[in-house]
Write a structure and sequence with these properties.
With 201 residues, this protein is an alpha+beta fold. It has 2 domains: 13-81 and 188-194, no CATH class; 85-125 and 144-183, 2-Layer Sandwich (Alpha-Beta Plaits), CATH 3.30.70.100. It is built from 4 helices and 9 strands; from the N terminus they run βββααβαββαβββ.
Length: 201
């Protein structure tokens, strides 16, 4: 049952058959409206979608219009960093003379950790010079220094940064330094707020 001002009330009814063979009456898919003018808003730590809906449209139930304007987010609470799925990054580095042969195995082991939904690596190589003395003469020797960033999507209801660090440090190969996970916060990031006033929920 939808209220008369609901964004779903005007959608057509249709029937579907579920996996158990039951016939159910449902609404058709709601297509996103054409994007109008928007203005950027910087997310704060205390934001709530219903409060943003009221500030923008004088109706707290109009928060869904903000979601419509930010189609890159799969869950409404992701816009303000309140969803259970969180992003974090871990810095990985090897000793100057270190090598890690099985990055693929390491990544699979990380993906098997409880609470880890997605994981991918971003590699970088930096050439560093240092002075060594050979035959009484100083020489600058250049060596490659490998580093890597591990980006994770984790379920914060299952794991936290302390547990995650312990699990990854335990499976890290000798010579591989693992930093404490840094959560990627939405605070300070921009979202789009539609201009004008809209309807209800």
């Amino acid at each position: 049952m939808f209220g008369k001002r609901s964004r779903y009330v005007r959608l057509k009814d249709t029937t579907v058959t579920d996996a158990q063979g039951r016939t159910l009456q449902v609404k058709t898919i709601r297509l996103l409206p054409e994007a109008g003018s928007t203005f950027p808003y910087t997310v704060t730590e205390t934001d709530r979608l219903d409060h943003l809906g009221y500030r923008a449209f004088q109706k707290s139930v109009s928060w869904w219009r903000i979601c419509d304007a930010n189609i890159g987010f799969m869950h409404p609470q992701e816009l303000i960093g309140k969803a259970s799925l969180k992003q974090c990054v871990i810095e990985l580095s090897l000793a100057d003379d270190g090598t890690l042969q099985n990055w693929n195995g390491f990544l699979h082991a990380v993906q098997d950790i409880a609470g880890v939904e997605q994981a991918f690596l971003e590699e970088s190589v930096e050439v560093r010079g240092h002075t060594e003395v050979h035959g009484g003469e100083p020489r600058i020797i250049f060596r490659e220094h490998f580093s890597c960033r591990l980006f994770l999507t984790v379920n914060a209801m299952i794991t936290d940064t302390v547990d995650l660090y312990g699990e990854i440090a335990a499976i890290a190969a000798p010579g591989l330094t693992v930093s404490v996970p840094e959560m990627i916060s939405r605070t300070g990031k921009d979202i789009e707020i539609p201009s004008g006033r809209g309807g209800g929920g």
